[in-house]
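User: Before I run my own analysis I want an independent prediction to cross-check against. Here's the chain; please return only the structure tokens and, at the end, one sentence I can use as a sanity check.
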Amino acid sequence: MRLGRILTAAALALSTVIVPTITAPQVLALENGLARTPPMGFNNWNTTHCTNTFNEAMIKGIADIFVNRGLKDVGYTYVNIDDCWALPTRGSDGNLRPDPARFPNGIKAVADYVHSKGLKFGIYTSAGTKTCNTAGFPGGLNHEQQDADLFASWGVDYLKYDNCNNQGVDAVQRYTKMRDALARTGRPIVYSICEWGRSDPKVWTWGPNTGNLWRTTGDIADNWSSMIGKAKSNRVLAQYAKPGAWNDPDMLEVGNGGMTATEYRTHFSLWAIMAAPLLIGADLRKVNEDTFTILKNTDVIAIDQDPLGKQGTVVSNSGGLVVYSKVLANGDRAVALSNENTAAATISTTASAIGLGGSASYSLKDLWSKQVRTTTGAISASVPGHGTVLYRVTPSGTINRLEAENAVLSQGVVESNHAGFSGTGFVNTVNAVGPYVEWTVNATQAGTATLTFGFANGTTANRPVDVTLNGALVRDELAFNGTGAWTTYSTVTATVTLVAGENKIRATATTANGAANLDYLDIN
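Assistant: Structure tokens:
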């Protein structure tokens, strides 16, 4: 059970009985123990492509800046190189060979330098006969183990594996083969699948068992249209992200000069609320101070790196005014109010709409301006064109969360296929009158409590429940109206008087449609 707040001694002491009757199987992430939060670091491609500015001096310079400018201190770890590091042909032993003009001391020397700074080093190749550059550098297809062993011997900590010149070989086969080759080296290597979401079945359906992250889009470009297009493609895939396995809408363009500071803040905010990898794509030797201010915003980074590992979901989207919400490990919510239009507009939501109802008031911290204010539930801001206001929303008072998946379920299953839920899943009852979910609550003293049920209802029909306390009806047919989608969560409240000691709170479906998907019960 994950608790959002700790009760004071005078408040209720609550607990659940963990006896779900049915548990649905869950797809597990690649269990190499790596990338438990989205990787943070650097990749040169967005700023250099294959030009001669990409070389050993640049990569060492980036590692120096990570340390000297505090990027390492806020979580940036990986210094990665992309395509064009190798010679166009393998050596007589079949091994890949570094280009001596770019890397005169070899790749291992660069990796050693990066490691000496307390950072990690990443490399690139393709799951094909050649990489993506037209010069035709050798790829890893049919050389998986040889290349994995070579990378491990150089001290590689991260592999980006691209998709060019794949000869029509099945993507799952190609990427699984490299996964297994990396595992056999015995070296911990984060595995980035750069398949672009082109093949069927889609990479996000098999990626969690194969890699630590997978590209969901084609290459990003340094302009608003490209960036927001990548966000739109990625934001609908939240159900596939989890610790150790992340949707990747491509690297950051922040600092490359093609967008305004407002647009770059939106870029960074959306990547953070989508739990996307934060790989800097700008030459940090040349960027302005605004770039460092954006990239080092620790409040925004904390949203991306939240250990619960939830990707944010879209709560509402009307005319280019989009509200995102992300569940955080301590029970807070991150909320992004994002304006995809060119003119300023007011964007609004509520604590209930983001699945955080039941508190008398909430603290709203603007993660860019750092201003803090309180609200009784309304969340609203005037947002400039192409801008995003990012809040951290914290309930006041003493709230204890009891997850539905840890309660007693009479008829139904625990599922996790509709993103946006709290905890590890939600309860989906059978479609019938009578299924119930029952929580056990222990109160140190008798008193009034507000019950807040978190739920999703992707239909237009009300799915009411009777709420009983210790067998007595306390709320007849409490309404659980449609939320617009199964990935859109809301709340409904009821007030009860608990007795000292054990209390049984039961929600029982009263129509043939069964209950809504029940996510949690908050006690305040």
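Sanity check: The longest strand covers residues 447-456.
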